[in-house]
Specification:
The complex is a heterodimer. Chain A is of the alpha+beta class. Chain A has three domains: about 210 residues, no CATH class; about 130 residues, no CATH class; about 110 residues, Immunoglobulins (Immunoglobulin-like, Sandwich). Chain A contains 16 helices and 16 strands. In chain A, the strands form four sheets. In chain A, strands 7, 8, 9, 11 and 14 form a five-stranded antiparallel sheet that branches. A five-stranded antiparallel sheet of chain A has the order 12-13-10-15-16, with no helix packed on it. In chain A, β3 and β4 form a beta hairpin. In chain A, α4 packs antiparallel against α6 and α4 crosses α8. Chain A is elongated. The N and C termini of chain A lie far apart (about 110 Å). By secondary structure, chain B is mainly alpha-helical. Chain B has three domains: about 60 residues, no CATH class; about 120 residues, Cytochrome Bc1 Complex, Chain D, domain 2 (Orthogonal Bundle); about 70 residues, Cytochrome c-like domain (Cytochrome Bc1 Complex, Chain D, domain 2, Orthogonal Bundle), CATH 1.10.760.10. Chain B contains twelve helices and three strands; from the N terminus they run βββαααααααααααα. Chain B has a two-stranded antiparallel sheet. The chains are: A alpha+beta, B mainly alpha. Chains A and B meet through β1 and β8 of A and β3 and α1 of B. Bound molecules: iron/sulfur cluster (2 copies).
């Protein structure tokens, strides 16, 4: 175990601290995040592997849908306006499913944020994940924080040149791979890969790759934390989402202050000292360039790396972990009140810490029960309701649809034998990837008879229509009613479409229009 | 009045203005923002060089890319007609019946014919081809000169009673005002009206039948079913070009109207006329 005074002090300063005055246009102060290690870093590696894996591999998953539909598990087929997701196929008019998913994602984000703060930002946001990935490359080539700071300050030399060129090349390769993976969601991945490599893909594919390469490289490599701080709206919204029971990364100054680099000496002199040894480890690892000890800040993405950094320092000096920890405002306030005697005096570490360094029993700790509050229940309920409603809609949706449009002009035609004829445009939607024969019949029109323009043939009273797989078929259908059956002004009847296999039916109520008075 | 003021809590200078005790922090803009701004300015300048932009006295600078929205439309139209070429060539080569037998060609011709119809034919036949008194309804199944696609094609090409076309369809119903007395005209009108089921005075119908046989049957047929060779209408059905009922019929017997349809073959060209014929034939009454 190290002695307090032996903990290495890092030269680090919070570059985004408000205390530093800046000119009208401020150049970005470079941030050189130090590698952290600990439970949260480990968790973040896992999340990174999963999210990147999902992004890069999903387009390559196959899903057999028979000969008439693509076999790519997830595909946004813009040309044919279809969206495929494993066993689900969505037509444009069913886009509400996607809208519903987005609403669920939004409410899910509210739920997560109200319980564990900006977990989305800290762990799964593409900006965070890619910046993390780019930092891995940077560290591998240029070394950790100190080496990088040194390299940055060093004059240009061959070795600096080599390192910089290598770093930016690898970054660009990652960026190209990122942009490249995106387009595979929009076309058959293996085919498109071949086309892209041989220069035969559509221009829009190359443009998309170029644009996403540029954004990935610029956002992940060059702009990094500035994207979160200046461009993303979420840091501004978070304040409305958090409440006093939300977990956020917190510096527990009720046990950390007064911080001291020379704790032993101070203690010997009879001064009270907190747990913080002012080693700046938390500042050095922060990818956002802030000092969490200044309190909750807009910039903090709650990546929890400062927790890892501080925990390892606390381990070294034999103090309890959690000087920086996920804590709720309520717990923090309670502990603060404990340490200050309800605000009567400055922080007195002795009130929260036993002589051996352990924290006293009275210190409030987070427990899982706090997650269950009305707010999270409401979010969960709304989220689940939308999910269930969509599931119901998905399971009961029709895969055979019928739409009928009455001719507007003329509304009816008098035929030579006095019969009345109405014209309709009938649209049949065969929403499964198999060819089908659909039989159309008329129901409820006395003496009504159909005829169709084109190749379709009547089979007695029914019209048999062959519809291509996964397509809409538009038909022009004429319906006539003999003179003696016509009702002045018209009547309503029903078109019924039935799958030849007899499994599915669809119907549409239509008007049959006739002259007002009998002639 | 903008004196320097530093906000105590953040340590950042403010804009110096104060509204009801509220001041605005004057945080510096990030430099990348400035670069982005410069980039947009450069882009704008480049844009005005590349595209038509700067106003001159009578026009504007053309831009080095020589772009114009009219030019773009021209290109699009050229592309569209290039795409239509194979259909047009096929329509040129085939007869109307052959066009109708070919699914996609029929669809193309129907759509093209509908467009031509809307420009050239709706003035008389109406936007839904529903006709009006004196101008036949093309949706129904009564065809004075034949309702097959080929017959329609001939009618559209050469017109009806159109003096400038040698092959035009002609017939003329004589004015019976000079040959029959007013009473006879009344009688024959009552008879003709009775053929399509309207209730007429039997005292007139009987002499009317005889007058019909003597004067009208030659063209309209003894059974009054009409004669397409002569363009003579069927008088027993429910469709009346010049109006139904005894009065309208009497009027037509006395001083007949003989409508004229122009010949479109020379004006629109063979392809368009074929398309028109396919469209009209698709309206539901075709034979
Ligand atoms: S303060 Fe801590 S949690 Fe927040 S961004 Fe920095 S390292 Fe991550
Ligand atoms: S909070 Fe922890 S990591 Fe940060 S300076 Fe204090 S002891 Fe070091």
């Amino acid at each position: 175990m190290l002695d307090v005074g032996e903990v290495e002090r890092l030269e680090a300063e919070a570059v985004n601290s408000a205390k530093i005055r800046q000119p009208l246009y401020a150049a970005r102060k470079k941030i050189f995040p130090k590698r952290a290690s600990g439970q949260f870093r480990r968790f973040k590696w896992i999340v990174m592997a999963i999210t990147l894996g999902i992004y890069y591999l999903t387009p390559w998953l196959r899903w057999d849908r028979g000969p008439y539909a693509p076999d790519q598990a997830v595909l946004v087929d813009l040309a044919n306006r279809r969206f495929y997701f494993f066993f689900i196929e969505i037509w444009p008019q069913e886009f509400f499913f996607v809208a519903g998913l987005l609403v669920m994602a939004g409410i899910g984000l509210f739920l997560i944020t109200s319980t564990v703060g900006r977990a989305w930002c800290g762990y799964t946001c593409p900006q965070t994940v890619w910046v993390d990935l780019f930092l891995v490359v940077e560290r591998a080539i240029e070394g950790d924080r100190n080496a990088r700071i040194k390299l940055d300050g060093a004059p240009w030399s061959v070795s600096k040149m080599v390192k910089r060129v290598t770093k930016h090349t690898v970054w660009l390769l990652i960026a190209v791979a990122t942009g490249g993976a995106w387009i595979f969601y929009f076309a058959d991945a293996p085919t498109l890969l071949g086309e892209v490599l041989t220069g035969q893909a559509a221009a829009v594919a190359y443009m998309t790759i170029a644009v996403l390469t540029a954004t990935t490289y610029i956002f992940g490599g060059l702009m990094r934390e500035q994207v979160c701080t200046y461009m993303c709206p979420w840091p501004r919204i978070q304040a409305a989402m958090l409440d006093e029971n939300s977990l956020t990364v917190t510096y527990n100054d009720w046990r950390g202050e007064p911080r001291s680099r020379h704790a032993k000496k101070a203690a010997a002199a009879g001064e009270s000292v907190g747990d913080c040894v002012d080693c700046n480890a938390c500042v050095a690892v922060c990818p956002m360039g802030i000092d969490i000890r200044d309190g909750q800040q807009l910039e903090c993405i709650t990546c929890a790396l400062c927790i890892d950094a501080c925990d390892s320092v606390m381990d070294k000096i034999g103090r309890e972990r959690g000087l920086i920890a996920y804590a709720t405002l309520n717990d923090y306030n309670a502990n603060m009140a404990l340490a200050t005697g309800d605000g009567a005096h400055a922080i007195e570490p002795a009130l929260v810490r036993q002589p051996g360094g352990r924290l006293v029993e009275k210190v409030a700790q987070f427990h899982l029960g706090k997650i269950f509050r009305p707010r999270t229940f409401i979010y969960t309920a709304v989220w689940a309701l939308i999910g269930l409603a969509m599931l119901y809609a998905l399971l009961t949706r029709e895969r055979l649809q019928l739409n009928v449009l009455h001719d507007r002009n003329p509304q009816f035609v008098v035929l030579s034998d006095g019969a009345i004829r109405n014209g309709y445009t009938v649209k049949l939607l065969n929403m499964i990837p198999e060819p089908r024969t659909i039989r159309i019949t008329l129901v409820g029109l006395q003496g009504g008879a159909m005829s169709a323009v084109g190749a379709e043939q009547m089979e007695g009273e029914t019209l048999a229509v062959d519809v291509e797989p996964d397509r809409l078929k538009s038909l022009k259908i004429y319906v006539r009613q003999p003179r003696d059956r016509v009702q002045p002004g018209g009547t309503t009847f029903r078109f019924v479409a039935r799958d030849a296999a007899g499994t599915e039916t669809a119907s549409y109520d239509a008007n049959f229009i006739a002259p007002e008075a009998s002639r | 009045m903008t004196e320097k003021h530093i906000d105590e809590i953040s340590g950042v200078s403010t804009t110096g203005h104060e509204w009801d005790g509220i001041r605005e922090l004057d945080n510096p803009m990030p430099r990348w923002w400035l670069w982005t701004f410069y980039a947009t300015v450069l882009w704008a300048i480049g844009y005005t060089v590349a595209y038509p932009a700067w106003p001159l006295l009578t026009s504007a600078t053309k831009g080095v890319l020589d772009y114009s929205s009219r030019g773009e439309v021209k290109q699009e139209l050229a592309a569209a007609s290039a795409a239509q070429e194979k259909y047009i060539a096929a329509i040129k080569a085939k007869s109307v019946d052959e066009i109708e037998a070919d699914g996609s060609l029929r669809d193309f011709a129907t759509a093209a014919g509908a467009a031509t119809f809307r420009v050239n034919c709706v003035q008389c036949h109406g936007s839904g081809a529903q006709g009006s008194p004196g101008f036949p309804n093309l949706n129904d199944d009564e065809w004075l000169w034949g309702g097959s696609a080929d017959q329609i094609y001939k009618t559209v090409t050469h017109g009806i009673r159109f003096a400038d076309d040698a092959d035009t369809r002609t017939s003329e119903m004589p004015a019976f005002a000079e040959m029959l007395s007013a009473v006879q005209i009344g009688d024959v009108s009552a008879y003709v009206a009775s053929l399509s089921g309207s209730v007429s005075d039997p005292a007139k119908v009987e002499p009317g039948a005889k007058i019909y046989a003597d004067n009208c049957a030659a063209c309209h047929g003894a059974n009054a079913k009409g004669n397409r060779e002569l363009g003579a209408p069927d008088l027993t059905d429910a469709i009346w070009l010049y109006g139904s009922g005894e009065r309208a019929i009497a009027q037509q017997v006395r001083a007949p109207k003989n409508g004229v349809m122009p010949a479109w073959g020379a004006r629109l060209g063979d392809v368009k006329v074929k398309e028109l014929a396919v469209y009209v034939h698709s309206l539901g009454g075709g034979e």
